Amino acid sequence: MSDYFSVFDLPRKLQVDEEGLRRRFYELSRRHHPDFHQLASGAEQASALESSALINRAYRALRDPIARVEYLVALEEGRDHRSAESDRSGAGRSGREVRDGAATRPKPPRDLLEEMLEVQEALEEAKATGLDEAARAHLAGERRRLVDRREAIDAEVVRRGAEWDAAVDEGRHRAPLLAWFKEALAARAYLGTVIDDLGQALGEGQEAHVSHRRH
Amino acid sequence: MSRIVGIDLGTTNSLVAHVDDGIPTVIADAEGHALLPSIAAFTPGGVLVGEAARRHLARDAARTIYSVKRLMGRGYDDVAAELAHLPFEVVPSAEIVRIRIGEREVTPPEVSAHILRALKARAEAFFGEPVEQAVVTVPAYFNDAQRQATKDAGRIAGLDVLRIVNEPTAASLAYGLHKLADGIIAVYDLGGGTFDVSILRVHDGVFEVLATNGNTHLGGDDFDRALVEWLRADIQARHGTDLAGDPEALQELRLGAEAAKCRLSFEERTALTIPFDGFTYHKEITRANLEELIGPLVESTLGPCRLALQDAGLDPGQIGEVVLVGGSTRVPLVRRRVQELFGRTPRSQLNPDEVVALGAAVQAQILAGGITDMLLLDVTPLSLGIETLGGIVSVLIPRNTTIPTLAKELFTTSVDGQTTVDLHVLQGERELARDNRSLARFDLAAIDPMPAGMPKIEVTFLIDANGILQVQARELRTGKAAAIEVKPTYGLTEAEVAQMVEDSFTHAEADVNARLLIEAKNEAVTVINHVERALTQGAHLSDDDELGRIRACLAALREATGGADRDLIRDRTIELNRATERLAEAMMDRALKDALGSKRAGEILEQT
Lengths: 215, 608
Known about the structure:
The structure holds two protein chains of two kinds. By secondary structure, chain A is mainly alpha-helical. Chain A folds into two domains: 4-85, Orthogonal Bundle (Helix Hairpins); 104-214. Chain A has nine helices and two strands; from the N terminus they run αααααββαααα. A two-stranded antiparallel ribbon of chain A has the order 1-2. In chain A, strand 1 and strand 2 form a beta hairpin. In chain A, helix 2 (18-32) runs antiparallel to helix 3 (42-62), helix 4 crosses helix 9 and helix 8 runs antiparallel to helix 9. Chain A starts with a helix and ends in a 14-residue tail after the last helix. Chain B is of the alpha+beta class. Chain B folds into four domains: 4-218 and 300-377, Nucleotidyltransferase, domain 5; 220-296, ATPase, substrate binding domain, subdomain 4 (Actin, Chain A, domain 4, Alpha-Beta Complex); 382-491, Substrate Binding Domain Of DNAk, Chain A, domain 1, CATH 2.60.34.10; 496-607, Substrate Binding Domain Of Dnak, Chain:A, Domain 2. In chain B, the strands form eight sheets. In chain B, strands 1, 2, 3, 4, 11 and 12 form a six-stranded mixed beta sheet that branches. The chains are: A mainly alpha, B alpha+beta. Chains A and B meet through helix 2, helix 3, strand 1 and strand 2 of A and strand 15, helix 9, helix 11, strand 19 and strand 21 of B.
């Protein structure tokens, strides 16, 4: 089973020339997009649709450093590209499927959870009683701090990405790095949730924020 | 390969366009009008569309449907709040919106189909050949049900909708032909009833949408409503009359307010004068009055702009161009606020009313193979998910994912021997299923009875290039395709659409017949009047025998016009014409003689 890296003839590494990847994405799209197969047979149209969908998903998984690490972690854990894109299938109950998302998405680090307790409490209070000037300033400050913190994690993820690639080249043991990536991803996902909640409490951007947490 | 036209099916106006020798061009009607008002009047004599229907608004408001786009793919509950503003009656139901017109009920796709049919006829008259394929645009923020409803409308109108294209993206294609510089562009599209913002990267002919956002219930209509409410209160205060109970008067006021709003885009102040029953209303309105009324509405478009930027991972400063689309972007306040947000002067060289249709024509040309260097990569505007235990939504395809795209999920059974599994598919950004738009319920049926957890059903959720969901299921163990029954929540079933397609042929024929009958009767009446005049003026030029025959034919035609047999009316009209031929000549001859003295008519004709 080919992975998303091979769709673009890339080695399975984290440092990617993103300009080059985009050019390749456009090139492949020009070849496979359904717009250019409108006059073809039904079978050809269906195949263009499938290829195009695969190319689009592959590009989404690789186009930015964080998405790449998420995808790589899924790959390294032995999930092929199909299950990597939907790692949540599970056993059904009462006719509906149930996700085991909690099992595949590690819990955020305990110290982060504890650290967030104060912010969460302030949030609960804001939800219950509304925001006064001081509380608003406090929450806005917290939000800025968390955004900075997420950016710091992202920078570190990129730095360790270079380390990972070097380890691949030299055939070194990579398990500790992989474990670190998983933890970092969990931490930033959790931070994202709190950032969105704070944003909502501060009245920024309405409902659309909610879905970030599930990416 | 037949022609593919591009259609902008708008809330207020609709257009059809094609690419002529490399240049996208709007097709005008016989009088030279490019815009077709998106209005359909269901009169006893048949359905009128466009300008003719607009004239019916102030006469028979309950049978004249406008802004139907706002009802497409919607449920009764979605639109309940705005029903007070609409003069026509919407039938309460748990499902799709239905509009009552006399004894009949019509759905929004059927009303839209009348508009599409008029555009189709316009294009056919222009090309002199049948037109059966089209690209139709929709607001980028339209959900699956609204897109499907648009496709259904096309089918009912006899059009194969090859592609649904997002309006802001279509506009960018039209601008793209005019050598848009490579870079990031923002398209701000505020139409009659919908608002979209799309952020695109344009590079070497590729138009890649990075993010889109919007509101499918915000547009110029809402500006009009704000103004109408304000004027209505003023009328009540000054004349002591509440227009609320008079739909026709309210429509007069609405049309007057709409026109005043448009004038205020170019003038600082304008006067409105409407003669009502019992009094004449006169009002001076300033641009400042209007801006105060619509200020909050304009403000509410800025949030989606910021969210789109955020989803694209961009700051306003990174936007290279801002393009304005839609008639409502003529409003100076809108231009000002957009300019402030993006920090640059927006472009609007192309007519904001026409640019979407032009872009649809470009996309039609791409599909036809006539343009090969442009490629549009669009996104799905809303996250797609399924309901899981406890009513939580699990997202399968996040919003702003490039389409086409797909997601696969495995499902199984929970009870021994269970043979069906049902899935509830939703669209939206909220965590709870009940806060999102329910798209459909799918029944995976005919699973072989097995112990619980044994069947492995792989379901593929595919969003095609139209932004429309297709679902396929396969039992992995046997490789057998699983049967899926789709129950759209706010849509027409396949059977209903098929029925409407059939009905439309019957109705179309009935409509044509009604028109032909009216024309035949009109002609008969004209002939009868002529003959009656001739009999009083020229009876002395005829003999009893001839007069008898003429009177018999006249009576026969009179009798026929009382009925509904068009052929009989036509035949008897011809008979009467024949019976009076000689008399008519004799009268002409006599008239000429009288005018010219002694010369005979024949001599005069020879001399000229």
